[in-house]
């Protein structure tokens, strides 16, 4: 019949050990099958596999045949990333009579300021490191300036590389 095992985690000689009581007394020559489901956290830096050492021991009769078996389980981290973005203001309309002021270093003389904000979210379940986000922004359309890239800023410990052509007129 199927029975639920009683298992207790503990530390033994610096290792994490889980002891499961299979049954007592057990008849001589008995054969049992054990299915175990383990939930292990903190595997982000474990590489591509984790190794378990399994050993069957009897309390009643110490034996030299208490050999251990090594089981290697592949580890695959999964994370779902989501990119959110918006523009402030959401809609911008230039008056038909508007013209830029040549030679001015004031941003308002070159157009209406529009701020684009992008947020990269990790929806899990694993943590992520070493993420690279490449964002292409059209700066010209039909030989004319569409968006003048003035500055680039980040929050949250991210590093960004300034794109070529960032603020070429030093506005």
UniProtKB/TrEMBL annotation:
Domain Integrin alpha third immunoglobulin-like residues, every copy: 82-170
InterPro entries (alphabetical): Integrin_alpha_Ig-like_2, Integrin_alpha_Ig-like_3, Integrin_dom_sf
Keywords: Glycoprotein, Integrin, Membrane
Membrane topology term: Single-pass type I membrane protein
Domain (Integrin alpha second immunoglobulin-like): residue spans on this chain: 3-75
Superkingdom classification of source: Eukaryota
Molecular function via GO: integrin binding
Protein name in the entry: ITA2B protein
Native organism taxonomy: Eukaryota, Metazoa, Chordata, Craniata, Vertebrata
Name of the encoding gene: Itga2b_1
């Amino acid at each position: 019949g199927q029975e639920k095992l009683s298992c207790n985690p503990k530390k033994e000689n610096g290792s994490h050990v889980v002891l499961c009581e299979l049954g007592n007394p057990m008849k001589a020559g008995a054969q049992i099958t054990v299915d175990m489901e383990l939930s292990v956290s903190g595997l982000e830096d474990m590489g591509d596999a984790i190794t378990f050492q399994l050993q069957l021991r009897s309390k009643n009769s110490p034996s030299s045949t208490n050999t251990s078996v090594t089981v290697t389980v592949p580890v695959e981290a999964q994370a779902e990333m989501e990119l959110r973005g918006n523009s402030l203001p959401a809609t911008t309309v230039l008056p038909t009579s508007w013209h830029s002021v040549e030679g001015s270093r004031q941003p308002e003389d070159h157009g209406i300021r529009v701020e684009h904000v992008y947020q990269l979210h990790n929806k899990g379940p694993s943590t992520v490191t070493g993420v690279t986000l490449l964002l292409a922004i059209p700066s010209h359309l039909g030989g004319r300036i569409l968006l003048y890239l003035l500055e680039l800023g980040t929050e949250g410990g991210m590093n960004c590389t300034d794109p070529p052509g960032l603020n070429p007129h030093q506005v």
